Records
---
Amino acid sequence: MASRSTIFVVAFAAGAGIFALAPGLSTTVQRAIGIGPQANTAIPPKPSAPEPISGLLPMNDEQIKLAQIDLVEVGPAAIAKRLVVPSSIVPHGDRIAHVSVKLSGTVAELRKNIGDDVVKDEVIAVLESREVADAKSEYLAARLTNDLQQDLFNRDRLLWEAKTGTEQQYLRSRNAAAQTSMRVNIARQKLMALGLAESEIKALPDAPEARLRRQDVVAPITGRVVERKVELGTAVGRDNLETELFVIVDLSRVWVELSVASSDLPLIQEGQSVKISARGLTKTTIGKIVFVSPLVDKDTRTARVVAEIPNAERTWRPGSFVTAAIALNERTVPVVVPATAIQKLEGQPIVFVRTKDGFEKRDVVLGEREDQALEIVSGLTPGEAIAATNTFSLKAELSKPRDED
C-alpha cells in the first residue's frame, strides 16, 4: 500500500496542473471543480421590523402649559342627527316696549339716549303738561273736599247716635261723604290713565307746586334704548303729534326665526332642541322651538318656526343671519370628545390621555359625529382627562425615531 505521503504528493501535483490550465477553462467549469471565483450566494439578511412606537410621552405641567395643550375631562353628552336650516335673529316678541305718552305736553328732560341701559321704573324723560297739572289739581281739590266731608259725616253720625242730632242731617252728611269719596276715586283714575303710578299719586299732597305740571316717564321694562324719537322741547301728545318717545328692547333672550321647508315640517315640533351658530363666531348656543306655524308660504313653500335662545352676553344681535341645527333624534352617549383631540397614527385613531407623568397614547373606536364633537365607542372611560388642543405636536413627538442603545 502506498504511503500517505505519496498520495498527498500525487494529489498536490494534480491540483497544481489543473490550476495551471485554469485560465483556459470557463468560469463555470472552474466553479464546478472548486478553483474559480465563487458566486456570492449568501442570502441578504431580512430587514428587521420597526420597533413599535412607545405610547408614553413624559411631560410635566409646565411643559404642557408651554405647549398650549388644553385638557378636558371626557364624559357623557348628547349626540343628535340634526336638520340644518337658515335663520335670523329677531327681538323677543314679549321683550319689546314702546314708551308712549298719554297726555299733551312738551319734552322738558331726556335722561336716556340711544344705547343706554335702563331698569324697570327708572325715569327716562320728564314732560311738562297743562293737562297733567289740571288733573293733579283736580285730584288734590277733590281729596281736600272729601277729607272735610268725611269729618262732617263722622260728627253728624256721633250726634245722631247720641240722640242729639237729627236723622235727616245724618243722612244728608252720609250722602255728601259718599259723593266726595267717589269724586276722589274718579280723579285718581284720571291720573292713572295719564300715566301716573299709584306711588306718585300718594306723594302729590306733599309735592312742591312746581311738580304739578311735570310728569315723569318711566321705563316699563329692563333693557336697552334702541330708538329715541323726540328731542328737547318737542311737543307730544294728541292731535297728530308724536306720542312715542322711546323703544326699549330686552336682549337677555331673543328669538330665532327659522325657514323650514314644507317637506321637513313633519319632523319639527315645539320643544325640540336647536343649536345656533354663526359664521365668524366660535360660540354656539342651544335653544328650544317655541312656535311652529301652521301656515306655509305659497311662494317659498316654507313655514315660520321660532326658537328662543338665551343672550345674557348680547352675543346674538337682532338682524344677524345664523345657522340653526334642529335636533331630530337626540341621544346621550357615555363618552364624547372634541374633534381636535383625535389624531391618526398608522391609520388608527388615537387620543392622548393625561397621566401623572405625561401623556399616554390610547387607541379608540369612533362613533357618530356632531359638528366638532365625536362619540368614543371604546378606548376611554368617563372622567379621564385628555389633550384637546395642539395634539398634532404630541403625535409628532411620539413619531420621532428613538436613539438606539
Note: The first strand starts at residue 56 and ends at 58.
---
Amino acid sequence: MNDSVFRMFELAQQGFSCAQVLMLMGLEAQGQTNPELVRAMNGLAGGLGFSGKTCGALVGGVCLLGLYAGRGKPGEKEHDRFESMVNELVEWFGEHMQGNFECAQILGDDLEHKQVSVKCGNIVAATYDKIQEILEANGIDPAGGRE
C-alpha cells in the first residue's frame, strides 16, 4: 500500500467523505489547509447530500482539478486546458465505472447505511491517481499551488 492510499484510508476512517478525502489530499500535497473548503466539500457526500446522485469521487475530483487549474479571484483566468482536463476525468470515470455515475448505482445498500465501503476507497484511490496523471500531463505540479 503506497503512502497516498494509506493516507486516504486514514481520512476515511476519520469520517471524511470521498470528495473531502480528495480535496484534503490535494491541499496536503500543496502544504495547505482550508477547513472551510473541506467543509463545503461535505455537501457532495453520498452523491450530493446522500441523495445518491453523482458520485462524490467524481465531483470531488472535478473540484480538485479546479483547485489546481480553476479561476479563483477577479482577474485570474482558469488554466487554458481546464475544461479538457475535466472532460478527460469525466470520460475516464465513465469508462472506469462502466457508465455508472450515480452513487446509488455504485454503492447500492451501502449508501443507505452511509457506510465507508472498500468500493469507495478503490474508486477514490483510482480517481486520485487519474487526477495526478491529468495534472502532470498538463504541466501542473501536484505539489505546487496555483500562484
Note: The chain is about 60% helix and 0% strand.
